[in-house]
Structures are given as structure tokens and as C-alpha cells.
Amino acid sequence: MTQTMNRAFSPEAVQELGGPAWLAEKRASALELFHTLALPTEAVEAWKYTDVSDIDFDALKPASRKETVTSEEQLPAGVRARLGSTDVAGYLVFDGPDVIFKNVPADLSQQGVVFTDLRSALDSHAELVQQYLYSVVPAEVPDDTTIAAPGTTPSKSPDASEGKFSALNAALWTNGAFVYVPRNVEVELPLGSFRVLDESGTFTATRTLIVADVNSKVTFIDEQDSEDLESAFAFGAVELIVKDGAQLRYVSVQNWGRGVTHIQRQRGDVARDAVLNSLVVTMGGSLSRTEMQSHLRGQGASSEMLGLNFASKDQHFDHYTLQHHAAPHAHSDLLYKSVLADTARGVFSGMIKVDLGAQKTDAYQKHRTLLLSSEARNDSIPQLEINANDVRCSHGSTTGPVDAEQLNYLRSRGIPKSLAEKILVTAFLEDVLSRVPLQSVVKYIEAVIAEKVGAV
């Protein structure tokens, strides 16, 4: 077993996190796995184009604990700005490892909706948390497993990716959002979580758990933001459980400052006739690796997976996706758009996997990349693994530069180059943005794009 001298990754650190006995056991098992697994290298297929060998766990310390605040006026300026332009029914604000502010309207509780931070839920809703936590992103199994139905044992699969990082999160997560929507309840406005970082040389491990019970409906917006930092690490895990006939829309907007390394695994478990709509937006950080998986385990399940990212300067963005069809008559549709400028690097690896017996599968996967610089580089690996004979599956990927004729046309009309590029980039991303019914999120994304191309 590989050992580390850093107390932040020791059994003592896990014990100090507290919690019930069952959670302590899960954490201890995950910590052991973390120390057993080596860092993934470029020799591992899933990490062929992304090098994380320079992560020095011995040099990392956990982000310091934060005090709660009593009003919105005391929140970080960036969070206040987002709250002022986002329509949410309730929200949580996390600074590093701690929730520092909650705004949860009473009418949510009156409907039976549980919306709180995960550590509080361990006390107030212990049975719910124990039932669902680690059921979609497991704590005790290595990274060659697939998603299983909540409460069952995962089955083996070759979709290995970031097992060491998932084990780290499972062992050392400090807090995150917990949402439970009871059966037949619809939450009209989105719920939100806003996370910030402000310390160099530190790491945070956060976990989000969202459960949409039978025939329920909810939207959740998960945003991450920080100033530029010398070095910081955000290790995340997101578990999305969508039961029979339920609808869940999950939006992740990552806009960390330079110097932040972001590694997050997001998995959705979609039951019979349920719908999971996900949007993954990556704009910030120096290195970002995001995995989004949808496991369609119920007949008639549906998953829409949207993604867009804009990398500039020397940013490196890696996205890994899995559309796992385990039941017949299920539908999945993936559309990811990437924009790369300067010397940025983009990686996309997407798999459609159809299990034996998952007949009448209808699955689509499309990834397109726009290059704003001849020095930017993109690697795209779309893949199919089909084990049923009555399916309709397609995948494709394109990479190309800005259309010179279109750019020249705009410039000939007196439009500056930066603004012309902003117009073309926004048009390129439009077919993703047009499928997002959250206008405040769309406007925020467009503002970040404008800043990246120097049009503001």
C-alpha cells in the first residue's frame, strides 16, 4: 500500500470528520482504496491525453474552516452578483469546506422537499442519506465498475477512469448539497448551490446528492467560482438519482480562477420513464477533468447530456462521458461543443454502451470543436460498444477553425475582430444554449464567453 506522510489523508483526518458509524466505515474503506490506487498516468487509456502526475498530495492541506454569515450582504461579491441575476427558489453558499449561508423558503419544507447541506442532513434526515449516499458514485469499489441501482452492488465494467480521485472524495468530503423531492412533487423554480475558493495550496472535497422520487420534478444549478489562485484543488462527486417517471435537470457551471485543478465525477441513475437533463459548462481553472455518466437502467428512460466549454491561454479541459443503456426502449442524446483559443488543449472521450437485452435503444452522440488559434489542440474519441442487435446509435466528432469568410464578412462591416469572434463563438454554441430553458444561466455563460474573447 502506498503511504503518505500528510496527515490530511490519514485515518485520523477521517475520524475527525465525525458522523455515524456506517459513514465512518465507508470513509475508512475509501481512504484505504485511495492509498492503494496509483495516480492515473497517460499509459491508462482514459487518461491518455491528460497528465496529473505532478499532483503532490504530500504538499496539500485542507481548506480552512469557515464561519457562517447572517445575511446576503456578507457573502462574497461574486456570489452576490450571481444571486442578483439568478432566479432560484432556495440556495446554499459554500466557502471551501463549509456551508456559510442558507436560504431555504418554508414552502419547500411544507411540500416535503428536503434541501440542506449534506452534513446537516446526516442528523436531520439520517435514513434518507444512508439509503442513497454512495449508491451511484460508490465509496468502496475500484474504478472498473459501473453504476448500479441504488441499494445494489455495482457490476464490473471496463469504463475505468478516476478511481483514486473518487476514493479521495468518498473518504474526505466535508460537505455539499442534499436534495430530496418526494413523489408527485414539482419544484417550480430551480434550487442552487454556489461554491467559492479563496486559499492557495489547499484542496476541497465536496459531494452533491440529489434524489428525485417517483413522478417528481426539480432543477438544480451547481456553480463554482473563485479568483485566480497560485494553486488549489477541487475534488467533487455528484450523485443524481431519478426514480420512475421523475424529471431532474442538473446544471453545472465551473468557472474557477486560474491555478485551480478541478476533478469531478457526476453520475446519474435513471429509472423507468424518468428523464435526466444535464448541462456541464467548463470555463475556468487551469486543468479540469469532468466525467458525466448516465445509466439508463429503466425501460423508457431518457437522458439529454449537453456540454459546452471554452478554454483559452494554456487551459486544459478533459471531458469523459458515458451513455450506458441497460434497459430496452431508452433514449439518450449527447451534444458537446468546445471552443479552444491560444494554446489551450481540449479532450473529449465519449462512450455509448448498450447492454445485452437493451433492445430498441435510441442513442446519439455529437462533439464539435471550434479552434480560434492554430496552436490550440483538440483530441476527440467517440466510441460505441453495442451488445444488442435492434438499436439505433450514432456518434460523430468534428474539429475546425473559425470560418475565415464569415470572420472577414463581419470585419468588413466595421465590427472589431474580438467582437466578430464573440458573435461567431456564440452562434457556434447556440444549438446547446437554445436547449437550456434557464435564461439567467445562458446570459451568465454568454458574459463569460465575451470576456474570454476580449469583447467586454
Automatic annotation (TrEMBL):
Q: Where is the SUF system FeS cluster assembly SufBD N-terminal domain?
A: 21-191
InterPro entries, sorted: Fe-S_cluster_assembly_SufBD (IPR055346), SUF_FeS_clus_asmbl_SufBD_core (IPR000825), SUF_FeS_clus_asmbl_SufBD_sf (IPR037284), SUF_FeS_clus_asmbl_SufD (IPR011542), SufBD_N (IPR045595)
Domain SUF system FeS cluster assembly SufBD core intervals: 198-428
Q: Which domain of life is it from?
A: Bacteria
Q: Which GO terms describe its biological process?
A: iron-sulfur cluster assembly
Pfam families per record: SUFBD_core (PF01458), SufBD_N (PF19295)
What family does the entry list? Belongs to the iron-sulfur cluster assembly SufBD family.
Q: Per its record, how is this protein called by name?
A: Iron-regulated ABC transporter permease protein SufD
- Source species taxonomy: Bacteria, Thermotogati, Deinococcota, Deinococci, Deinococcales
